[in-house]
Write a structure and sequence with these properties.
By secondary structure, this protein is an alpha/beta fold. It has a single domain (7-151), classed as YqgF/RNase H-like domain (Nucleotidyltransferase, domain 5, 2-Layer Sandwich), CATH 3.30.420. It contains 4 helices and 5 strands, in the order βββαβαβαα. It has helices spanning 50-64, 83-98, 112-122, 127-151; strands at residues 17-21, 27-32, 39-45, 68-73, 104-108. A 5-stranded mixed sheet has the order 3-2-1-4-5, with helices on both faces. The chain is globular and about 40 Å long.
Length: 152
């Protein structure tokens, strides 16, 4: 396993960043502008399986011309990590292998799905439309949090 890249290590790079909310069913994606000011959701992928998902996300990263990737790291409210965190770390490592030279950092994603759910409740987004949006919105929140941290 590679040495872990931190969010602050991304200051060594310039250009667009891809945000990823990895999930077994759907993986949400967001990308920043070149100045790293704003995160925008670009949808989700659901190819099935961790390997195929890593392949698809690596393909999107190349298409978007990103210089770094941020993957959400699910932590428990007490800061501990469980099975989902291990799975996300495994996914991040698969991306590192597929995109050698592009740093992949992990970002604490506590409360992002809750924030996304609250926003979708406020905008009255329900049913199938909600399923298609929540992972993208979560990726956007993860990425925006990372961009804000890089600025400060």
């Amino acid at each position: 396993m590679s040495e872990q890249t931190t969010i602050l290590d991304l200051k060594q790079t310039t250009g667009r960043v891809l945000g990823v909310d990895f999930g077994d069913t759907r993986t949400g994606l967001a990308v920043s502008d070149k100045s790293r000011f704003l995160a925008s959701g670009i949808g989700y992928v659901s190819p099935g399986g961790i390997e195929k998902t890593a392949d698809k996300v690596a393909e999107v990263a190349r298409e978007q011309g990103v210089s770094a990737i941020v993957v959400g790291l699910p932590k428990n409210m007490d800061g501990s990590e469980g099975f989902r965190a291990d799975r996300c770390r495994e996914f991040a490592e698969l991306l590192r292998v597929r995109l050698s030279g592009i740093p992949v950092a992990m970002m604490d994603e506590r409360m992002t799905t809750m924030s996304a759910s609250r926003y979708l409740n406020e905008t009255n987004t329900r049913g199938q439309k909600r399923k298609g949006v929540i992972d993208t919105l979560s990726a956007q929140i993860i990425l925006q949090n990372a961009l804000d941290r890089l600025k400060n």
